[in-house]
Design goal:
218 residues, alpha/beta, 52% helix, globular
Length: 218
């Protein structure tokens, strides 16, 4: 069964659209699992809290520490959630996956893709998304959405977005440059304009999903 991943910078609307797509698929009679990274299992969620939090000590994790944390969470998530659900015939909707590591620890953190792939390869094996939807918005729209997000002031990555205008375009570059996964294959990525109303963006998402998978009913 398919693994569909939503990617994009903070405030792009991916989490909202992931929820809406999952409900749309359920309404079509499909069995759907919603999950996210980092996270998805109790242990992985604990790692997420460490990864995204602002330490009271001020000891901010280095990009390499970030990579090891998120890959540890991903290993738990893949083995305990993703692989069993795929084997069980479920559709999986995942909020973030490996592309976020390429952007946050690679593009932003300065780690080489070869270093990221070296850690990711044993975690993923030949697993990659069937479809990755990359949502993009202008930075002003992203800022406005983050202001409405509860708890964003205590989220380290939300805070960093306000100082980095290039993250959204970096996600676009994964699509245009056809960035491969560690196994050398290029996942199927589609850019989605995340501007406009929630309903307008949902229609763009559904168009991309239907174009890739065809009929979405049991």
């Amino acid at each position: 069964m398919p693994l569909i991943v939503f990617e994009g910078g903070e405030g792009a609307g991916k989490s909202t659209q992931a929820i809406r797509l999952a409900q749309y698929l359920r309404d079509k009679g499909l069995t759907v699992l919603e999950t996210r990274e980092p996270g998805g299992t109790p242990l992985a969620e604990d790692i997420r809290n460490v990864f995204k939090g602002i330490p009271k000590s001020g000891d901010i994790p280095t990009p390499r520490t970030e990579l090891l944390l998120v890959m540890a969470a991903r290993a738990q998530h893949v083995e305990k959630i993703v692989k069993p659900a795929l084997a069980d015939g479920q559709w999986i909707i995942c909020d973030r996956f490996l592309d976020s590591s390429y952007i946050y620890q690679g593009f932003r953190g300065g780690l080489a893709k070869t270093d990221i792939d070296a850690v990711a390869a044993p975690v993923l094996g030949n697993l990659q998304p069937d479809l990755t939807l990359v949502l993009t918005v202008d930075l002003f729209t992203a800022h406005q959405r983050l202001k409405l997000r509860p708890g964003s002031e205590s989220d380290r990555l939300d805070t960093e977005l306000l100082r980095d205008a290039s993250l959204h375009s970096a996600f676009e570059s994964l699509v245009t440059s056809q960035t491969p996964y560690p196994d050398g294959r290029v996942p199927h990525r589609v850019l989605i304009d995340g501007s406009g109303t929630t309903e307008q963006v949902q229609q763009r998402v559904l168009s991309a999903v239907i174009a890739h998978f065809g009929s979405l009913s049991t």
